[in-house]
# Entry
Amino acid sequence: MKQRKLFWILNFILGGYFLYRIIDQSKILRIFPLNYTNDVGSYMASLFFMAKCGLNNLCPYWYNGFVAFTTYSPGWQFFTMPFYWITNNILTATWISWILMFILGFIFILILGKNERWNLSKIIFFFLFLFGNAVAVGGFIREGRMPAMFGFVFILAMFALVLYYKNRDLDWKFFVYLILIEVPLILSHPQEALLGQFLLLGLFLIKNLKEKIKIAIGVVLSLLITMFWWLPFIKNLGNNNILGNVQGGWIWVFSGTELLTQVVGFLVPLALLILFYFYYKQKKSILFFSPILALALLFMLRLTPFIPFLRNISPDPFIMLFLIFVLYFLLSIRLFPKFIEKMLPVLLIMIVLFSVGISHFKTPYFWEYTQGEYDMLELLPYGGDRFFMVYTAPKTSHPKSFYAYVPIYYNYTTPGGFYPQIPTKEYDDLLYELPKMVFDGNCERTNELINELNINYLFAYASYCDRLKECGYENIRNSGKACLFYSGR
# Structure
């Protein structure tokens, strides 16, 4: 099979599924996600907080008040805020910025492809496989991890930049482009921001002293420009649970939904190392790629959870970074051994079909409201400040999603929140303890927690309503299986 024909077949499969997922997720234009497979709600809330509270100011909406953006980065919010001002609609603004990030990602891949002299079928394949694989569909589309996607888009920009200047002198344009890419990357998401520096490190290693100084100056200037954010962020690390959240440890979980991630997390870096072997035989270039090769080996051997800072990066950003290099090596190698050339078309088609199949069957599509959500939504106007979601409809409703929804649409505050890294671990433990005490019928401890957390209104569901009634709290209103109580404080 001719190479160009093969890539157009792959593009047809990937493109059809990618478009289907985009259309399905576009339901977010009319429905605020309230289910469990959802991170985007928290980011929409943070966009609302930026509009209401500003940057690094006290924000009353979550956790009995917190300083906004000292625990998470503001890059995606800066990017999306103009659309929020224009539309005055959090859903529309989020959707616009989401689509624009895909477009930006394609533009950076197009620049990369043109510099590498790839034909259009290869460029489109690079984009569709990168953003349409099972990991990307789960994270960037279904979960809606907007800051991570924003960071990944600028990792692509950094990749195109360092590859272009790999065999060229660093001129003044490089200096400008570096700052224009590094600044949003630093502000995007800590995990992607850190991984993006491994790309720059590769360029740094192969350049002479004079050019090393130019790269260092560009990074320092970028850090100075973004200091308004990262300095308060670092100062606040002792007051939250960010460093205690060792997401890198998930790579050691070999059960449940994480099992598939473990398989992919082994095969992708392995593919990177194998493809680099063939790439090296033709290009004889290793120092430039050495940081990524070392990172891939550490990740494949499950050693990254033992390394400071890398231990706080979840598996998905590693996998997505490695996929960039897998695709780059695959498309750059001019000639494989004959036995590989023969089996490569079948192998690529099988990989694409497997990725689409896994994504289709394992990654949920957009979840519309059930009666449980409608019942709870009907009660929201009767609540008020310092509300708490004791329990919501199981399987279909995520209590934390309501902590994102209610401030935006009702301007209520809550002792809870949708970002567990903001409060201390001790405070977060109290939030988890309260529903358990209600379920156990421990009225004395329930009352202590309500007073300690400063709660006025309690939303609950099904049997939890009976427990709150037994504890003597005032039942304000019911709707189906949902209920609203007043604590009496």
